[in-house]
């Protein structure tokens, strides 16, 4: 049996630890990468070229695509930034009182969700670049995932909360992880019933 391993190395890789890697919506050609070197980079992996980059004043902990031309990021500088790939412009949209650990996008509700070490989740309207609500969590937010109208949040103290993004008055579910150690990553997926 032959070895079918294929190695691919990006030109101009980040200069420090990578905090997030995500492919563009409906595309495996564009790769968005955030890093501890304070930068967010967009790569075209078909041509192995860096298409653009922008900078935070501190390490970037997360990034996400809103659509093929708008990306969002947050990090230790406590700032939420939006970058327009086509125009090459960045905008600071808002902030938290501590590091922004997680940035998610809900395509169903057209919302940006941020989770922070200040023990809060904030929702942002990308049409107006404004915060539409801030919601306290039981501890520092370490991980988040969106599927449909559901937001799942993992916090310090091994807590997992399920929220309905349409009504954030209180979580739909609260659980304590059965894992021995802190939850650092979780993913939720949409399920549907076909009849």
What's the arrangement of strands in the largest beta sheet? 1-2-3-4
- Flag low-confidence runs: none
Q: Which descriptor suits the 3D outline? A: globular
The end-to-end span amounts to 44 Å
DSSP strand tally = 16
Radius of gyration: 17 Å
Number of helices: 0
Proportion of beta-strand residues: over 45%
| Helix and strand run | EEEEEEEEEEEEEEEE
Structural class comes to mainly beta
In which range does the helix fraction lie? under 10%
Largest sheet: 4 strands, antiparallel
Integer average pLDDT? 90
What keyword list fits this structure?
195 residues, mainly beta, four-stranded antiparallel beta sheet, 52% strand, globular
Short description:
This protein is mostly beta strands and 195 residues long. It has no helices and 16 strands. It is 0% helix and 52% strand.
Write the layout of secondary structure elements.
Blueprint: E1 18-23, E2 30-35, E3 39-44, E4 49-55, E5 60-67, E6 70-75, E7 79-84, E8 89-95, E9 100-106, E10 111-116, E11 120-125, E12 130-136, E13 141-147, E14 150-155, E15 159-164, E16 173-176
Antiparallel strand pairs: 1-2, 2-3, 3-4, 5-6, 6-7, 7-8, 9-10, 10-11, 11-12, 13-14, 14-15, 15-16
Describe this structure in words.
The protein has strands spanning 18-23, 30-35, 39-44, 49-55, 60-67, 70-75, 79-84, 89-95, 100-106, 111-116, 120-125, 130-136, 141-147, 150-155, 159-164, 173-176. The chain has 195 residues and is mostly beta strands. A four-stranded antiparallel sheet has the order 1-2-3-4, with no helix packed on it. A four-stranded antiparallel sheet has the order 5-6-7-8, with no helix packed on it. A four-stranded antiparallel sheet has the order 9-10-11-12, with no helix packed on it. A hairpin with a 4-residue loop joins strand 9 (100-106) and strand 10. It is globular, with a radius of gyration of 17 Å.
